[in-house]
From TrEMBL:
Pfam families: MmcB-like. It comes from the Bacteria. Residues 99-192 form a coiled coil. This is MmcB family DNA repair protein. The keyword Coiled coil applies. InterPro entries: MmcB-like. Keywords: Coiled coil. The lineage of its organism: Bacteria, Bacillati, Bacillota, Bacilli, Bacillales.
Length: 348
């Protein structure tokens, strides 16, 4: 019988020590009561610890070490040497943080970075448009100034000359006013970039420990509610587009996705929820009662559904009115079943 390992227990520490001494991963099951899969996970954890010790300060290293094998979702950041992201996430975790909560924090990190990229791209595009318009006005301004000089040199009837000079001066003034307005808009965009960048960077995309616990409570309620109504339901299911649904559920007739939100800031900063829609017949936001009104505004345009927490489960207060044919529905259901089996067999 294989032992249960966490990366923190005595058996894990003995294996980690032997790996440091040169024991091959493939040889671990020959010496210890663990599977090859468990040995590989310990080896990945060891590699992460070695990289953290070399590149991060002691406090961050200790935080990683205290998580044990729960820290493995962070391996993607270690592969990319994303030390900034690793520090950001480890700053908010505790010994009680669960593996699925770490995965949620990874999503939060990526979401914040995506918002920064999108904001910068939009602001840069606005600046380029204004700069192009300003250059065009400068060209026209130079043409008019040359024309003005030529008129002053020409011998023409006084009335015609005054009329022509008046028109040129009028257009020059319009150009000057328009360029002043463009400069003002460009300055405002630059100020907004600095302010918004700081706002996004400092935004609470990482849920508090309390919010994480509340989210788990709502997730459990929804899973039980769906199971009682004949659905196969699984938490934290990764869709083909790489996005992870809080709850993916299905029966013979339909696929349902529930997105759980417990804080106003998390709800407002979520830009990815529409990417879930192609993979379900019905999509619902599931929230505590205090978020009902902001969710109503969020789902109105997409005609999605909304449900609210009750004492013993949830209550649907708006049905999903979309008509959607889910492509690859059978494959999605099979993947969800595989995930449930893996969690039951291996515990993760």
């Amino acid at each position: 019988m294989k032992a249960t390992i966490t990366g923190l227990d005595a058996l894990s520490k003995r294996i980690l020590l032997d790996l440091d001494r040169g024991l091959k991963v493939s040889e671990v099951p020959e010496h210890y009561p663990v599977s090859l899969d468990q040995a590989k996970r310990l080896s990945r954890f060891r590699n992460m610890l070695n990289m953290a010790e070399e590149n991060l300060d002691e406090k961050v290293f200790k935080k990683l070490e205290s998580l044990g094998l729960k820290s493995l979702p962070l391996s993607s950041l270690f592969r990319k040497s994303d030390w900034e992201g690793i520090v950001d996430i480890l700053a908010v975790v505790t010994d009680e943080t669960k593996r699925e909560e770490l995965e949620f924090l990874l999503d939060g990190l990526e979401e914040r970075r995506k918002r920064l990229r999108e904001f910068k791209e939009e602001a840069d595009l606005d600046l380029k448009r204004l700069e192009f318009k300003d250059r065009s006005l400068q060209t026209r301004e130079r043409e008019l100034l040359r024309l003005q000089e030529e008129i002053n040199r020409r011998s023409v009837a006084l009335i015609d000359k005054k009329f022509t000079v008046h028109k040129v001066k009028e257009e020059l003034k319009e150009i000057k006013d328009e360029r002043t307005d463009i400069q003002r808009k460009m300055e405002n965009i630059k100020k907004r970039m600095v302010h918004s960048y700081k706002e996004i960077v400092e935004s609470p995309v990482f849920l508090s420990e309390f919010d994480l616990k509340r989210q788990k409570e709502l997730q459990d309620k929804a899973l039980k509610w769906l199971f009682q109504r004949g659905f196969v339901a699984v938490a934290d299911f990764t869709l083909p587009n790489g996005k992870r649904a809080d709850i993916f559920a299905y029966n013979e007739a339909q696929i349902v996705i529930l997105e759980v939100k417990v804080s106003h800031s998390d709800l407002m900063t979520d830009l990815k929820w529409t990417e879930y829609l192609p993979y379900c017949d019905d999509f619902y936001f599931f929230t505590p009662a205090e978020l009902v009104d902001p969710v109503s505004l969020k789902v109105k345009e997409a005609n999605c559904g909304q449900c609210v927490e009750t004492e013993d489960g949830l209550k649907i207060i708006k049905v999903d009115e979309r008509v959607n044919e889910v492509s690859g529905a059978d494959e999605l259901k099979f993947e969800a079943g595989q995930l449930l089996s893996r969690k039951f067999i291996y515990g993760y």
